[in-house]
Design goal:
heterodimer, A: mainly alpha, five-stranded antiparallel sheet, 70% helix, B: mainly alpha, two-stranded antiparallel sheet, 4 strands, 2% strand
Chain lengths: 539, 380
């Protein structure tokens, strides 16, 4: 036991010494390179020094290189050492560690002069160094910059970086960057073709730009290869653009579906025009806010999962308010849809103002938990944001659960029975009034769930619901009242159509087109996409 | 079952309404212009404008009542017709500004100069000329109603569906007018008006005339509407309201009746908008918002639909209350309005007019049945 402890200690100590030694060796190399700058040979010695600094590949060299490029690197004639002048110009700093190294006043300082050609060398050395940086993202950025600039001065640094690079993806990127440089500078046909092939594999906008720059520089076979590569990339980009549009459309569809599905129950199944539906969504969003605040206050460690706890809370809050509305107002108005419309509009005004009085008129911030933020890159140029993806899955889950409930559960059966023939359902012993209240509560509760999702992508304000109510109605009416699949199809159609129109017409005009299209569609099929058939439909 | 208009043309309540309207049209401007400001009887300028505004709202409510109360068409988009009428007159007044705008450009309105437009869009041609603008006040809403109604009624879109697509219509117009490219001033709308027919809209004299015109328009439209609903045409309308399919089976071309009354009603709403804009001095896209149209419906319901004068009364009472409450306790207004929506639909199906039933023709009738489309009729 003791032995093993000692062994470990020795290993740790050895590692420590080794690391310190390594960094010490690095520092010595940097200092030696810096000393070269002041070789007394004018520009030549400065160039040598820069090359030596770049060759160290040590991040510590960046300080002196940056200072040199800013004209803040000075030679102290008194001790013949190089220092960095700080931003105020009053203090001397150590060129490697950046620590304070005395006052500038009193010392005889000579600024190291540079010219434009040297400036280029400095930036090449700097990006060559970032190519060797330990942080993967820094390297990725550096290689990306070289790729787009196709700067031939970087070639050497790039070559040496490729030799030591261990990350496969970055290595490929580096090879592409090298190909970009080759394409910009080389005259050799075979090398050019190979370079075009390497770049074409990337198939993104940057590759298109780099290849586009080469048009006119090459001729004959190479030029035709270049052209076919460009059109190939264009084709791929168009495809991805299409996929991206479909994705945006699906994302909007999922939001529409969530907002409309509760309405499909209250309006579609019960025939109640609930203008306060949007406010049920809003209540769901505010419930999310409250739950999150509660988690932050009492259970900060579980705060990222407040959103999950908000789901049942929002369902209950909106559902209970829904049942309350049904029991107090709507049940008196069955069979009078226009009156229901007006009364529920009144309810929506009251709920809005109530929320405004309690929470204030400003937007409330609902934090996006870490597991919902960020994005997933499928291929270059096509990435899916996590929160949209989760909302899409959530919408599908809610829809599926609802379908199963309506088809398989007892309450679902009773709901359908009451919808189809109230008198007969009553005769069979179904308490139709209770079913009414439950149905309305269910529709409102689902609106509350929609509110949880929307709190992630929209502003949580008292007006949240208003922006969805007209869309939701259009989805339900378009899909066909009384048919959940119709709502599904309606949301999908309207969402995707909207996103496909947007690139051509702009967001507002696209929305207007959709509205007009739905108005015209209703002329053609007054009962929606999936109309229910039968005598009672006309009721 | 049918609200048979066998009673005299106006009924006693209608005559009282017209009488009060005439009296207001005469007395309010007179007390404003000819009584010295020191006198307690003096009516301040702002009251004239405020009441003038109410009269325009009353005309809008009356136009809603004409289609809803007598034909069962619940339009949630009448605000669009109102706004179109307002825009027509607003465009005329914009052109009257001439070179007196901020940019001093006689050829273009300020907002077009601001947007770097070089010439007047074609649809602004003719608005320098008052008779053309006045004609547009009637034509623009009328045409929209004609096209929209033709599509909707021909394909038998009724009840709630119709309400929702009228709402979608006004929402689409709201979005469209918000766009700067439309050439109607974007979200700032049209404002900074100077004069109408050469009279400054700021002076009390012009305001008094606008007030009288609003009262006259309301009175005249009331008379026209009464004549329509008391005619044979009006009886068919009521027939459509109560049993649309049955009326169709009797051989009436239901869609033609609906279309005609819808267009007439839209024109009335347009006139209301055209009188409203010079008095408030601005027209912007928010007038198209669906909320406004829905609010108009509640004025009508509160006043009592199917009476015409009730709708006008409802508009005036609610708006007067709104002015008072938003002044005294702004945060409770939406509670009051929301509560009103619920209260009226639950407990006052006949509205204010129902309260006066002792001395109006409403008394003898069965409860007015609206929204016939919602209930299955045994015969259908």
């Amino acid at each position: 036991m003791a032995c093993s402890f000692m062994t470990r200690l020795i290993i740790i100590l050895a590692a420590f010494v080794f690391m310190a030694g390594q960094s010490l060796a690095g520092e010595v190399a940097v200092r030696a390179a810096i000393a070269k700058l002041a070789g007394g040979n004018g520009y030549q010695s400065i160039e040598d020094g820069i090359a030596a600094l770049g060759a160290t590949g040590d991040p510590a060299a960046a300080l002196s290189l940056n200072a040199l490029s800013d004209g803040r690197l000075v030679l102290n004639k008194t001790d013949n050492k190089i220092y960095v002048l700080d931003a105020s110009g009053a203090k001397l700093l150590d060129p490697v560690t950046g620590g304070a190294a005395g006052e500038a006043a009193g010392a005889t300082l000579e600024k190291l002069k540079i010219k434009n050609s040297i400036r280029r060398k400095i930036s090449a050395a700097l990006s060559g160094m970032t190519l060797l940086a330990k942080d993967r993202n820094v390297r990725l950025r550096a290689v990306q910059t070289i790729f787009t600039s196709a700067d031939a001065t970087q070639l050497e640094a790039l070559e040496s970086a490729i030799a030591v690079e261990s990350d496969n993806e970055i290595k490929i990127r580096m090879a592409q960057a090298r190909a970009a440089i080759t394409l910009a500078t080389s005259k050799d046909k075979a090398a050019l073709k190979e370079a075009i092939g390497t770049i074409a594999i990337r198939a993104d906008r940057e590759a298109l730009k780099v290849l586009g720059n080469a048009i006119g520089k090459v001729d004959g076979e190479t030029a035709s290869l270049l052209e076919s590569s460009i059109s190939g990339i264009n084709g791929k980009l168009r495809l991805w653009n299409l996929v991206q549009n479909v994705w945006y459309g699906l994302s909007l569809s999922s939001v529409l579906l969530l907002a409309a599905i509760g309405l499909a129950i209250t309006f579609g199944v019960m025939g109640v025009i609930n203008m306060a539906h949007g406010e049920m969504v809003m209540l769901g969003a505010y419930s999310t806010y409250v739950v999150q605040q509660a988690f932050n206050a009492y259970l900060p460690s579980a705060a990222p999962f407040a959103l999950l706890a908000a789901l049942p809370a929002a369902f209950l809050v909106s559902g209970l308010v829904g049942v309350l509305i049904e029991r107090s107002v709507i049940r008196h108005l069955y069979g009078r849809p226009l009156e229901t419309l007006l009364a529920t509009w009144g309810i929506s005004l009251i709920l809005q103002q109530g929320t405004r009085s309690i929470f204030g008129p400003t937007n409330k911030e609902v934090v996006t938990p870490h597991w919902m933020s960020g994005s997933m890159e499928i291929v270059a140029g096509l990435s899916l944001t996590m929160n949209r993806l989760i909302i899409l899955l959530f919408a599908l889950t809610v829809f599926t659960a609802l379908m199963i409930m309506m088809r398989k559960s007892a309450i679902g059966l009773q709901m359908r029975a009451v919808t189809q023939n109230r008198a007969m359902a009553n005769a069979m012993g179904i308490r139709s009034r209770w079913v009414d209240a439950m149905t309305f509560g269910l529709g409102s509760g689902i609106a509350g769930l929609a509110g949880v999702a929307l709190s992630q992508i929209d502003n949580v304000s008292p007006n949240l619901g208003q922006s969805y109510i007209i869309d939701s109605f259009l989805v339900v009416v378009f899909g066909g009242v009384g048919n959940l699949w119709g709502t599904f199809a309606g949301a999908l159609t309207l969402g995707i159509a909207n996103k496909f129109l947007e690139p051509f017409a702009g967001a507002v005009l696209a929305k207007i087109f959709i509205l007009v299209a739905v108005i015209l569609f209703i002329q053609k099929k007054p009962r929606g996409l999936f109309a229910l058939k039968g005598r009672w439909v006309d009721a | 079952m049918i609200n048979t208009p066998t009673s005299p043309l106006f009924g006693r309540a209608g005559i009282v309404f017209l009488g009060i309207l005439c009296a207001v049209a005469g007395i309010v401007p007179a007390l404003n212009l000819f009584v010295s400001p020191a006198s307690p009887l003096h009516v301040p300028d702002y009251i004239v404008t405020l009441v003038g505004k109410y009269l325009c709202y009353a005309l809008l409510a009356l136009s809603v009542d004409l289609v809803w109360g007598f034909c069962g068409i619940l339009s949630l988009g009448h605000g669009a017709f109102f706004a179109l009428g307002g825009y027509a007159i607003g465009m005329y007044m914009m052109r009257q500004i001439g070179a007196r705008g901020v940019y001093g450009n006689a050829a273009l309105p300020d907002f077009m100069v601001f947007l770097n437009w070089k010439e007047l869009p074609w649809y602004w041609y003719g608005f320098d000329f008052f008779p053309f603008a006045a004609l547009m006040v009637l034509v623009a809403p009328g045409l929209l109603a004609l096209v929209f109604g033709w599509f909707a009624f021909r394909s038998r879109v009724t009840g709630v569906y119709l309400s929702i697509i009228t709402q979608a219509m006004t929402f689409a117009l709201l979005l469209a007018f918000f766009r700067n490219d439309m050439g109607f001033g974007g979200n700032n709308g049209l404002t900074d008006f100077k004069e109408i027919l050469g009279y400054s809209i700021q002076v009390p004299g012009t305001r008094a005339v606008l007030f009288i015109l609003s009262a006259l328009a309301l009175g005249l439209c009331f008379v026209i509407a009464r004549v329509i609903v008391n005619s044979k045409f009006g009886r068919v309308l009521v027939g459509i309201r109560d049993a649309e399919s049955r009326t169709r089976f009797l051989g009436y071309r239901v869609e033609h009746y609906k279309l005609l009354i819808f267009v007439v009603s839209a024109i009335m709403a347009g006139i209301a908008g055209a009188l409203y804009v010079p008095q408030v001095g601005i027209i912007n896209p928010s007038e198209f918002s669906p909320e406004n149209s829905i609010e108009t419906v509640i004025w009508t319901a509160f006043g009592g639909r199917g009476t015409l004068w009730g709708a006008a009364l409802g508009a005036i009472v609610i708006n007067a209350t709104k002015s008072w409450v938003t002044g005294a306790l702004p945060e409770i207004w939406l509670f009051v309005l929301g509560g009103l929506f619920i209260f009226v639909t639950l407990f006052m199906p006949k509205g204010l007019a129902g309260l006066f039933s002792g001395w109006s023709q409403v008394k003898a009738k069965r409860p007015i049945k609206i929204a016939a489309s919602s209930q299955p009729e045994a015969a259908e």
